[in-house]
Amino acid sequence: MAGLLTYVVVRHRDQQGSLAGIRPSGIPASISTPLADLMELSPVPARPAPGFTLTDQAGHVLSLTSFAGRAVVLEFGQVASLKAVWRAYAIEVQPRGRNADVIHTSEVFFIDPRGRERYVATPMADYTPKGTAYLPAGSLAAWGQGIAELARVLGH
Predict the structure, then answer these.
(1) I need a surface site. Which of 7, 44, 52, 107 has the fewest CB within 10 A?
(2) CB 122 within 8 A of CB 40
(3) How far apart are CA 21 and CA 37, in angstroms?
(4) Domain range annotation of the chain
(5) Is 71 in contact with 78 (CB distance < 8 Å)?
(6) Distance from C-alpha of 27 to C-alpha of 33, rounded to nearest angstrom
(7) Counting beta carbons within 10 angstroms of the beta carbon of residue 72, is it exposed (0 to 12), middle (13 to 18) or buried (19 or more)?
(8) Looking at the domain that runs over 27-155, which CATH code has it been given?
(9) Nearest to 68 by CA among 112, 24, 34
């Protein structure tokens, strides 16, 4: 009985170890497993993305429909006009004070040319001693490659 128990425990550990390198299904083959892991990239059911209308940093009004036929990478950063979009995308927001950084869930949505959510990624940030979040340089470069590749895949 002890031999059988030992075999089961060892076999279970072997199986767990082999699961560590398994690639999540639905990730494009051109995105490496380490990059998908870094981005915490997950496919989502293809469903219509919530619409939005926002003003970019140059003062141009943009909406999801203005990107019809193109892949969209959506990340959140302009506080005043984002409240309705945050609600639509279920982004949790926690203001720390009137002049403080706004803390919100860090998710990047990838929307296909037909306006459907296809992937979501979650950047893992580091923090300065004063509490400001940032992506480390090495991670930032990899993220840029991952974002560009997903946009290319979605655009085809």
Answers:
(1) 7
(2) yes
(3) 10
(4) 27-155
(5) no
(6) 9
(7) buried
(8) 3.40.30
(9) 112
Per-residue pLDDT tens over the stretch 11-68: 444 444 444 456 668 899 999 999 998 888 999 999 999 998 888 878 899 899 999 9
CB 53 within 8 A of CB 40: no
- 80-92, pLDDT tens digit by residue? 567 777 778 877 7
Separation of alpha carbons 51 and 23, rounded Å: 31
Q: Of 93 and 119, which is predicted with more confidence?
A: 119
Q: Which residues of 103-127 are buried (b: 16+ CB within 10 A; e: fewer)?
A: ebebbbbbbbeebebbbbbebeeee
- Secondary structure (H, E, C), the chain: CHHHHHHHHHHHHHHHHHHCCCCCCCCCCCCCHHHHHHHCCEEEEEEECCCCEEECCCCCEEEHHHHCCCCEEECCCCHHHHHHHHHHCCCCEEECCCCCCEEECCCEEEECCCCEEEEEECCCCEECCCCCEECCHHHHHHHHHHHHHHHHHHHC
Output the pLDDT for position 22. 62
